[in-house]
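In this supplementary section we document a worked example of the pipeline. Step one takes a protein sequence of length 275 as its only input; no multiple sequence alignment statistics are reported here. Step two produces a three-dimensional model, which step three serialises into structure tokens for compact storage. The input and output of this example are shown verbatim.
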Amino acid sequence: MNHNVFHKIAVINDMTGFGRCAIAVEMPIISHLGIQCCPVPTAIFSNHTGYPSFFFQDYTDAMEAYTAEWKKLGLTFEGILTGFYGSARQIDMVKRFIAEFSKKDTVVIVDPIMGDDGKTYATYDRAMCDKMKELAQLADVLTPNLTELCILAEEVYREDYEYDAIEAMCRKLSGKLKSHCRIVVTGIRRGSFLVNYIYHDGKAEKIRKKCAGDTRCGTGDVFSSIIAADAVRGITIEESVKRAADFVSRCIQESDRYGIPKTDGVCFEKLLSTL
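The serialised model returned by step three reads:
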């Protein structure tokens, strides 16, 4: 029996019941774009950690047994999308998953979630960042923010880097990645604009979008979901980034219009039919 008839993306991330982030965002968006979304949960949250309290259950010990059942089915994936990881062990498990479930043409999309605004997240130390560097080497598409780009390229963070310096970091980093890897540096603030900086094949392109509102939880997951589905569908990275940036912008505007708390993410459901 062939279980690989339909295009599939494996999403390895946490499952959060409320707050519109991670798998809860990735499944509906990837599915809407015509790709079967197959989640591998790394942890279970009642709501994300931006709220005053939350329920949490680590799923690390169950991940190998979970994916072992997929091996029995002979599953392979056209795309694999990574997410946030809480330990070096989880990152090693993701690396093994990529090796075991990839085909020749599988697209690996690594969102190297390590920090923001020049600071790493509380769970990330030097060893964890080094593990993420190893995972980045498996990427066909890599989507760091500026903080994460600096970590991966081993440069000191500065918010006001000129584009020439960002390109130099991308060029330096690309020497450690797959030769065809497309780097998308996300959410660079330049005055009233947000810039997504694309680098691949020695060339750079800037996609500018007027800031739609304040930062909201889960927008990175919305963005990477579109990038992942489009990569499997064969849409160019430039067109995909434009689509993703425009959709996130409209989702922020719609969420502000409804007065949705920023912790609750963006009401992408209202606009999904336009994607």
